[in-house]
């Protein structure tokens, strides 16, 4: 009952808002949502071109099959390129269908998509605190976009470097789908992920990989404590002759 009343009230607001002259609406941010027009509404047919369908599959191949939603920004960028520089709502709906999410998840994305690893090793090492630090610093909830349109925060399963847990990835689409990068930041802390965000805001590219100054790649922090030299050979290589 409440859902029907809310839906009816929203429809009334939309109908009233459409009566406001376009000039006034263009200066208003009080009600920020899509307004259907003859050339831009969900009923206008839209799909990826035959030339772009292989690109869609190539983009999807970068992500686990159960995390297709991580491909939302490069697919939106591809759709925008195909449509001549802007995104109709039907194109966004087409992307939502490809990645199997509700359309609202496609309407709200950022230029830098921050994904926190939520698999067990990272969770044990504090990934929930990492996510909380990002959401608090950016002032958003998971899958929301910041007001400046720069950042959104999501979760991804297993980024493949459990030895350097916890970690995040930054999907950087500031240069479009052809020039986007996918950078992993390992051994992060709540303080360090905030520093990474601030560096991205300044247009900097923080060094990727481990953020632990005592670690080299995936080696032990502080250096090796075993196998410091050549191992000694067995006393007799021909075991049958020993």
UniProtKB/TrEMBL annotation:
Q: How is the cofactor bound?
A: Binds 1 [2Fe-2S] cluster.
**Superkingdom of origin organism:** Eukaryota
Q: Where is this region: Disordered?
A: 202-242
Whether Metal-binding counts among this entry's keywords is yes
PROSITE patterns in alphabetical order: COMPLEX1_24K (PS01099)
Q: Does the keyword Iron-sulfur apply?
A: yes
What family does this chain come from, according to its entry? Answer: Belongs to the complex I 24 kDa subunit family.
Please give the name of this protein: NADH dehydrogenase [ubiquinone] flavoprotein 2, mitochondrial
